[in-house]
Amino acid sequence: MNTTRESTVERHLLMRCRERGLLSLKLISPGRAGVPDRVIVAPGGTVFVELKRPGGRLRRLQHLTITKLRRDGGEVFVVETTTAADELVEALASRVAAE
Length: 99
Fold this sequence. Notes:
Layout: H1 6-19, E1 23-26, E2 38-42, E3 45-51, H2 60-71, E4 76-79, H3 82-93
Helix pairs in contact: 1-3
């Protein structure tokens, strides 16, 4: 069983964003539960990131919010591991910004 905590995955994502020059903001929305944990501003666009511990599951409200964001054109990623965080950051950093 993997004992990695969600906070460990989040710290790793933040560190990797900083290393690659991406802006990662903690998303806090008073009065609205279920919003993703992070917003990453990267070349080519802004994305939402929900962080979970390995094997962690989305709560119903998180799933509904992610579905609405995606339906309306938002790009949302669910990241459960430090490896997945690495892959996401590299993919985002390699995008070409729209001019």
